[in-house]
Amino acid sequence: MLLLRVVNQLETAPRETETEHSQERLEGKLDLLLHWLGTLLFAEASVLAPSFLRLDARGVEWRVAECSQVTVGQGIVSLALHPALAAPLKLAAVAGPVQSGWWRAEFEPMAEELAEQWTQWLFRQHRRAIQNERREQGPPSPGGAKPAR
Q1: β-strand pairing of 102-107 with 59-63
Q2: Fewer CB within a 10 Å sphere, N or C end of the chain?
Q3: CB burial readout 94-108, b (16+ within 10 A) else e
Q4: Can you give the pLDDT of all 149 residues of the chain as single tens digits?
Q5: Does the model's pTM come out above 0.90?
């Protein structure tokens, strides 16, 4: 829950205040200390290459070709949510059988606050994906017609 809270705070727009300069200095020092602590605590954890995931409030899906270490049954899903955080988010889940080339793991029921933080993070990722897609498509042409590709 703490990891999701921190990620959500990291990704919100900065707010300007009177003590912004001193606050930035303090946050920089804390970031550095947390980075060192994370490096010490999680340096031995194996990190897989980034892969395409489909996430929703109840679970996660990934292509079979992306990971051969999955077995059907209960386990832990580890997700690296933000490059500034060395620690992965770990959620209890149950992996089901492969369907159409995809593994699916359903999360175990979450506490209300954790579920709220997870949903907030997911919504932010979804919103960013839509913005990126719109940027790639370019501005709409006059008359609402889409350009041919």
Answers
A1: antiparallel
A2: C
A3: ebeeeeeeebbbebe
A4: 656 766 666 666 555 655 664 576 567 667 667 766 877 777 656 666 677 889 999 999 988 876 666 778 899 888 888 776 767 888 999 998 888 888 899 999 999 999 999 999 999 999 999 999 999 987 766 655 554 44
A5: no
